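Model it.
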Amino acid sequence: MRVGSAARWDRRRVGLVKLGLGLDLWAGKGLRVPVEQIRRAETLGYDSVWTAEAYGSDAITPLAYIAAHTERIRLATGIVQISARTPTATAMQMATVDALAGGNRTILGLGLSGPQVVEGWYGQPWSRPAARMRDTVAICRQVWRRDGPVEHAGATISVPYAGADATGMGKPLRSILHTHDLPIWIAAGGPQMVELAGEIADGWIPMGFRPEMMTTDFAPRLRAGLARRTDGVAWDDFERAPSLTVHLTDDVAAAFAAAKPRIAMYVGGMGHPSMNFHNQSMARVGFPDAAARIQELFLAGRHDEAAAAVPDEFIDSGGLYGSGARIRERWAAWENCGATTLVVRTHQDEALALLAELAGTTEAARAAAPSGSGNAA
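Modeled.
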């Protein structure tokens, strides 16, 4: 395996928003890693590439594959579900990928998922999810810092294991892999978890983000969490990484229509009827009636009607759709929304290039690249 270089530029130093590339790895019944698209994004100055996981395919393994085909783009999970692994296993996997990639290239994006997946797929308890997130972050940091053997007596997780059925022979251990403190970004949409991200993480991955919501909804919660920190991390040090779909097209209505079935599946059927975070997210951004109607139709098996009930305005407000001119007109709202990274989701090379032009990442990449550098083969 040819590993990548850790060389990057500080995007905040040049005062520009960073760009990430969000991947959709599932193609039909298989898995596809779009290596050429990732290399293209790296050449255009994209700072990071993001994988996800669901019940069947994990988020971390593809990052090792991507590391072998790239030089410097950061490798991020968006997101790893905390119930899928013990915290020490999560820390080990990310540290291993980071070492293979040349060091200082990974971002651990963590999320909760929901009780339907946590209990139904992973066989883990859903109870006290915020406390479980707090324990997970603390244990990962101990593993990476290697200040001593890992010992954590948390509200939901103890290392060594201290349950009623423990043998008593568990021994605190220190990682044999020398690494560094990897960045942890927490995915969150609800008030409690957004505050928690500000308090214990290095960054935040919002759910259901719209540009105007940073000031009205999210920034106050993040700042409340940041105010509880004792490590000196402040607003300007804290990463904020919303996603946006970008689709270059002369037929905006057709683009919306193509997006609706997937949205209806998530809003209507992803999660328990009484706890669907995607449904709650649609309601939170101003479409509570539509969210309720989509769920009602989807759970009744009326999937086409559920898709038709997705408002065009909901799709349009969460991304950039249309001609190059329309996207340019709407770019400023995203550029100035308070994000430090925008995770772009698109299958179009032209859309990747347009966003790189608008964000100025191409020029930054050229200025930072050493003479004669190129992509890994």
